[in-house]
């Protein structure tokens, strides 16, 4: 057990031998930190937080009561192999959030990027790869092997099917079931999620140039006309002069284990 002298550990917390607690971190009452856990600088576990497994938590992350991080996957194929959960820096992990370690069949690592907000009751399953500045609203759930790009928002009570990819900057509305890939900067809504347009609000908030937004809107119109992948290939052949358009085309034409949500 290695607890930095500047760290604060409440007397009721249990820190198992082998755990590492970084400088200026604070472990609140009734927390339980397992023997393979690595906690960075300035991390706060407020109270009643369980961190287990081979889990690392990046600097400045704040974890609220009753979160469970690093427990074994909810996967019947898991046979006790040693897998990991890697959580980046400056995340806010609210009450009752659960994040599981990976599985051997999925690469062995569940990864969370930096600066995310995981609201109460959100779940990140085994082998998910979650980017930076991602927001999971209350009770949103990611099934195993999902890949979320940077700046994705998943609305409250929404579920994302296993193996689904959600591209950078996409937004999923509340109470959606997402069963297919979502292109970057897409807008998905409806009980059985449908691609309803672009996340224009998010693009404007991030200061994206108007010409780039116009190019994306033109691409979306092209993709709505005929076969989705064929339309993407046709546009790609013209070598469009737009970084965002090329990002979307690369996403569509890249490898995937799922189909796509396509424009209505």
Plain-language structure description:
- With 264 residues, the protein is of the alpha/beta class.
- The chain has two domains: 2-145, UDP N-Acetylglucosamine Acyltransferase, domain 1 (3 Solenoid); 204-253, no CATH class.
- The chain has helices spanning 200-205, 210-223, 228-237, 243-253; strands spanning 2-3, 8-9, 14-15, 20-21, 26-27, 32-33, 38-39, 44-45, 50-51, 54-57, 62-63, 68-71, 84-87, 92-93, 98-100, 109-112, 117-118, 123-124, 129-130, 135-136, 141-142, 147-148, 153-154, 159-160, 165-166, 171-172, 177-178, 186-189, 194-198.
- The strands form three sheets. Strands 2-5-8-11-14-17-20-23-26-28-29 form an eleven-stranded mixed β-sheet.
- Helix 3 (228-237) packs across helix 4 (243-253).
- The chain is elongated.
Strand fraction: 25-35%
Rounded to the nearest angstrom, the distance between the terminal CA atoms is: 56 Å
Could you say which overall geometry the principal axes of the C-alpha atoms support? Answer: elongated
Count of strand segments: 29
Biggest sheet strand line-up: 2-5-8-11-14-17-20-23-26-28-29
Q: Give the % helix.
A: 10-25%
Alpha carbon gyration radius? 20 Å
Q: What's the name of the CATH homologous superfamily of the largest domain?
A: Hexapeptide repeat proteins
Question: What structural category characterises the helix and strand content?
Answer: alpha/beta
Q: CATH top level of the largest domain?
A: Mainly Beta
Give the averaged pLDDT, no decimals: 96
Unreliable residue stretches: none
What is the level-2 CATH architecture name of the largest domain? 3 Solenoid
Instruction: Count up the helices.
Output: 4
State the major sheet.
11 strands, mixed
């Amino acid at each position: 057990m290695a607890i930095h002298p500047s760290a604060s550990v409440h007397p009721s917390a249990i820190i198992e031998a082998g755990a590492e607690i970084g400088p200026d971190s604070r472990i609140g009452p009734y927390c339980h930190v397992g023997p393979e856990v690595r906690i960075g600088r300035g991390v706060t576990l407020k109270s009643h937080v369980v961190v287990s497994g081979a889990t690392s938590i990046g600097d400045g992350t704040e974890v609220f009561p009753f979160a469970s991080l690093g427990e074994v996957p909810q996967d019947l194929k898991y046979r006790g192999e040693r897998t990991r959960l890697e959580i980046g820096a400056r995340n806010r992990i609210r009450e009752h959030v659960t994040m599981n370690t990976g599985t051997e069949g999925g690469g062995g690592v569940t990864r969370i990027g930096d600066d995310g907000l995981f609201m109460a009751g959100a779940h990140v399953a085994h082998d998910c790869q979650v980017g930076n500045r991602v927001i999971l609203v209350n009770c949103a759930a990611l099934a195993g092997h999902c890949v979320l790009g940077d700046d994705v928002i998943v609305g409250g009570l929404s579920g994302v099917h296993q193996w689904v990819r959600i591209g950078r900057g996409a937004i999923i509305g509340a109470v959606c079931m997402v069963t297919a890939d979502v292109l970057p900067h897409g807008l998905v809504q409806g009980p059985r999620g449908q691609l309803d347009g672009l996340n224009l609000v998010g693009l404007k908030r991030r200061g994206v140039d108007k010409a780039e937004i116009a190019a994306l809107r033109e691409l979306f119109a092209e993709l709505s006309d005929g076969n989705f992948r064929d339309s993407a290939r046709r546009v790609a052949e013209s070598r469009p002069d737009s970084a965002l358009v090329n990002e979307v085309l690369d996403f569509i034409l890249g490898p995937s284990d799922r189909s796509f949500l396509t424009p209505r």
